[in-house]
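cron nightly-structures :: item 1 of 1
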Amino acid sequence: MTVAMMRRLARRPENVGVAFFRNSATLRRSFASSRLLRQGACNHFVSQASENTNPADADAKFRLAVKDNIATIGLPTQCASGVLGAHPSPFEATIVEQLRARGASVVGKTNMDEFGMGSYSTNSVHGPVSNPLSADEQLSAGGSSGGSAVAVQLGDADIALGTDTGGSVRLPAAYTGVVGYKPSYGLLSRFGVVPYANSLDTVGILAKDASAIQDVVFKTGLHMEHDPSDPTSLTAETRKRCARASPAQLAPLHNVTIGIPAEYNIEELEPAVRDAWAATAAKMEAQGARIVSVSLPSTREALCAYYVLAPAEASSNLAKYDGVRYGVRSENGDAAGDTLYSEARGSGFGEEVRRRILLGTYSLSSEAIDNYFIQAQKVRRRVQQDFDKVFSLENPLYEPRQFDLSEMSADLELADKRGPVQVDFLLCPTAPTFPPTLKDLETKSSVDAYTMDVFTVPASLAGLPAVSVPVWPEDSRLPVGMQLIAQYWDDQRLLSMAAKLEEVMRS
């Protein structure tokens, strides 16, 4: 889908173009007073740091907020769940230790969806997180890392840690107007992070701009540090091999090709978000980037596959919270065996967590595993192969695969006899809509919430790096998150491209 095609599809074509965006700094200033009024009402922190928590404050270079599912010495790690209460972690997550060593001063733990299960940061024992970008109504801050996103937007932290399993860093970033980065799977250590779905979980970073994230991850050498405590952490040898295969520097824009995935132009896409997508592509094209259409056919099944795989892994990970090894003991002290477990888990877990445990347990059952779990794994593999076909860089984790022209969509043009045009990055919206109000969410079903992940889940299934960058439409008081996706281990160029996108949208 070319930019011209996107313009024709937009329902309000008069808004598309350079004048579609206002200066983001101007818009942020216009919300300054309302943010101050709402700062205490956003409910984004669940615990604050004390002097004892930060023994090296005098040498601090930046303030760090930590999501409540990441272990931090001196502060409880509750995962916003009643099953953990005020659980004190006996150790600290590797990523927190690494950032402390680079000058971080922890300011507190942030609110979230319970165990990371949610798209709006409303499934929390501490109550919902409210978006600071609205003074007259309570808007969702996105989930599950909503508290971390709000902490950055309000200036309470320079950098915030979140976790991204299917979009839980990128979606809050889009809703609150900050930058949210999900790294390549295995790049940042997950040791000390309470797991949701092991094969999908990543530690993500939120900040006001992409260059701040790039400084923390790449200028400090964090991306090359292997953690032997984390079995999913890439080895030092693999990191060196991947680094040799991926260019570190971003080429000038006239040498950059950006793909527009045709399958992402869904009917449910809000018109203003579609307009912003088209206008962003138009501005990048005006600056010299080549904009081309690409096809990711397995995207249509990605969301379904995710909501089979993630709950299945969650049901296994949460089995330990049985009232004996972890979790609260029910008031019925005489309970034993299965009764003890069911009462402890029933009283400790929230409704959404219980729902996903049941979904996951069923998909792993002997009667369903072949029809659901195994099929979802096959879809996941096809999603990853679709991405590999469209990126010009080879995936350093796999042997090169010959492109099969019989698998190509008839709507795409051939670049040459070997196949269609390949791209450096993909550009699409982060979320299909603007943030809903907290009141509206009371009437929405869980399936409605799941559909908010439709644009973020594919990159998670493939383990690819992705970043959400806010753009500010002229006729909107709220930002639109634009997502950039890159090939595996192309994180450094991805963040450089995100910084370039910010620069282009300000011009």
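cron nightly-structures :: done
The two ends are 25 Å apart (CA to CA).
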